[in-house]
Amino acid sequence: MVAKISIGSSLYGALCYNGEKVNKENGRILGSNKIIIPVDGKADIGQMAENFRLFMPKMGKTKKPVLHISLNPHPDDRLSDQDFEILAREYLDKLGFGEQPYIIYKHEDIDRHHIHIVTVNVNEEGKRLNQDFLYQRSKKITTELEEKYNLHKAQREKISPDTPITKIDPTGDIKRQVANTVKMVGMRYKFQSMGEYNAILGLYNVRCDTADGRVNGREYHGLVYFATDDNGNTIATPFKASRLGKFASRTAIAGRFERAKEKIDVAPTKRKVADALSQSSGKDDFVTKLKERNIDVVFRYTDEGCIYGVTFVDHDTMTALNGSRLGKEFSANALNARFSHQSQPTEQAPTATVVPIPTPTNTTSGSQSTSSAGTAPAPTQSQSAHSDSGDYDFTLPGLDLFQPGQSFNPDEEEFRRRMQRKKKGIRRRF
């Protein structure tokens, strides 16, 4: 069983996130201590906050009095609601928080059911509870509970350089998959633009769009990630970068653009592309010969079928390069002139991704585009697209105040960001 602990200042943020899950029927309240729970099972967030406030010091010196914990059993452990509640209460008792006010939530929005606990780490006199070696003690407790109740040993998922990148599985946890893909692509590949970034992501059925606008009177400049099928159709609600982790943020990706400039050597890729082009009888043959050299190519087309963009993804050098970076002879204009006698590829043709020009829309957050794709068997079959999209959710903007914690789990990263980030010059109420 994996326990993840976040310590922060916003009690309302933690209650709101979990309460919304309950009220949208994606979760349930399993139990509480010293907190009144409505008999209808709904989460009255305001009333719960008031209940907590009764046990919170008005003039306490603790800047981060809120403790948010998630307990994640192994997927093979089939636990009832009663089992979850027993585990949560025993965990809190052993951790020294058994007498504190708390609420236990069960999340059911993904196949891997798990529980969340919201509590406070100060007593009624305003003194902070013992937090020495909190994470070490927590690990010892979860190990004891696994042994006591004969549970599978569950470890935090770690991403290593050897972890394979796979296409999005629509039947799995899409948010986790998107986050893993984004994290691993950023770890391994070098790219200098959004088009090059999307060329890589598209191989695994992920797309990233920029989002610029105003939210609650403030300018917003961020990224939104989409999971797609092989034809480029969105298959799930898009995810703001803040929900995946800071590694997915616009600032982080821009930093990768800058660092890549000093690391990229175009010569190896250029030689392979030139060799494939010289031996090709046409565009489809060109794509095939590139794949033999472990290179995927992404073509972007106008509505009239003209090539206006091309990106080469070299899986040997782990580099994505727009054609113009390799030389004029590999630019979109040059390749369009060379292959102009051929029609736009169909889904059945063994070609790279087809990406139409985005159609602007009247929105403050960007514009939206659609794409269709052929097959790309090496290293995977997929498509890639890049456009700006306004299809994202800015509801409950206060929930983006968590920072990533020590371990990577996208299901819980939003909590960490809320709990750890503090607005400058603004004192938040509990």
Count of distinct strands: 12
Strand order of the largest sheet: 1-3-5-4-2
User: How do the helices and strands follow one another from N- to C-terminus?
Assistant: EHEHEHEEHHHEEEHHHHEEEHHEH
What spatial form do the alpha-carbon principal axes imply?
elongated
Count of helical segments? 13
Biggest beta-sheet profile = 5 strands, antiparallel
Task: Point out poorly predicted stretches.
Answer: 343-409, 422-430
Mean pLDDT: 79
- What proportion of the residues is helical, as a percent range? 25-40%
Given helix and strand content, the structural type is alpha+beta
Please give the domain count: 2
Ends distance: 30 Å
Q: Determine Rg (CA atoms, Å).
A: 25 Å
Q: What is the percentage of strand-forming residues?
A: 15-25%
Q: Any chance you could write out the topology, listing elements then pairs?
A:
Elements: E1 2-8, H1 11-23, E2 27-33, H2 45-53, E3 66-72, H3 81-95, E4 102-107, E5 114-120, H4 134-148, H5 174-188, H6 194-201, E6 206-215, E7 218-227, E8 239-240, H7 241-244, H8 250-263, H9 267-278, H10 283-292, E9 295-301, E10 307-314, E11 319-322, H11 323-326, H12 332-338, E12 353-356, H13 410-420
Parallel strand pairs: 9-12
Antiparallel strand pairs: 1-3, 2-4, 3-5, 4-5, 6-7, 7-8, 9-10, 10-11
Helix pairs in contact: 1-2, 3-4, 9-10
Describe the structure concisely:
The protein has helices at 11-23, 45-53, 81-95, 134-148, 174-188, 194-201, 241-244, 250-263, 267-278, 283-292, 323-326, 332-338, 410-420, and strands spanning 2-8, 27-33, 66-72, 102-107, 114-120, 206-215, 218-227, 239-240, 295-301, 307-314, 319-322, 353-356.
